[in-house]
Amino acid sequence: MIEVKNITKSFDGRVVLHDINTVFEDGKTNLIIGRSGSGKTVLIKNIIGLMKPDKGEILYDGRNLLTMNKHELNMLRREMGMLFQGSALFDSMTVLENVMFPLDMFSNDSAKERQKRAQFCLDRVNLSEAGHLFPSEISGGMMKRAAIARAIALNPKYLFCDEPNSGLDPKTSLIIDDLIHDITVEYKMTTIINTHDMNSVMNIGENIIFIKEGVKEWQGTKEQVITSSNKALNDFIFASDLFRKVKEIEMQHEEG
Ligand SMILES: Nc1ncnc2c1ncn2[C@@H]1O[C@H](COP(=O)(O)OP(=O)(O)OP(=O)(O)O)[C@@H](O)[C@H]1O
Ligand SMILES: [Mg+2]
Known about the structure:
Blueprint (H helix, E strand, L loop, with lengths): L1 E10 L2 E11 L3 E6 L6 H9 L6 E6 L2 E2 L5 H8 L2 E4 L11 H12 L4 H14 L15 H13 L5 E5 L7 H17 L3 E6 L2 H7 L2 E6 L2 E6 L1 H6 L3 H8 L2 H15 L1
Parallel strand pairs: 3-8, 3-9, 6-7, 7-8
Antiparallel strand pairs: 1-2, 1-4, 4-5, 9-10
This protein binds adenosine-5'-triphosphate and magnesium ion.
Magnesium ion binds next to helix 1.
Protein name: Phospholipid/cholesterol/gamma-HCH transport system ATP-binding protein
GO molecular function, one term: ATP hydrolysis activity
Keywords: ATP-binding, Nucleotide-binding, Transport
């Protein structure tokens, strides 16, 4: 569980996050949604400690990120898996070497054990046969899966994904969403995903935080998105054609 308390962040006097309060639960895919520029990436960067908020607290299962010393912070970092925009695989390494990289950096296991673990993670994301290939030799969806395998190599408690579906077609996006959701449940991770993909919202939106201009405007589940009367949320989701249709059907149901 990650608790975010009263997080405020400004750049040059401009408030980008205003007094954000929320709880991200474990074993769930927690989504941060909102328009481009609403503050999703800044929020995730504050949560993982890449940026320091002006005010507030961030608690990782009760441990306060902002008062940790270097050693505690390093220990916490090992419990985090990250999947950022693009897959950011190393081009000069094979897929297997990419997945082994965090293990080589942080694990004390033997080379054989590390390779076994990396192969296990590749198997988990259905890339059993791709270990010997280079990133340039595989598709975008495969790269994303390889990046997921690398992100879970150290068995993280917390998984952070910033726009995991960027650049993928809708069908591949669904596969990636399902994979992230499945491993979240399987390993009881606290997973936080930034997205403006409405398909993801409806597919894996178990706990959704909607941010508008740096303010938490709404929080709920995918089922509650459909029936919400929050104007800002509706404006946001009505921008999607699919959603307009779903909402219209829902409203006809309510009237009839
Ligand atoms: N390092 C920075 N210095 C100054 N301003 C910044 C910095 N990082 C982000 N911002 C500003 O903060 C605001 C929120 O940006 P952020 O990247 O969090 O948006 P986002 O919701 O992730 O958008 P997108 O969906 O396009 O990724 C923007 O106005 C951005 O210009
Ligand atoms: Mg962003």
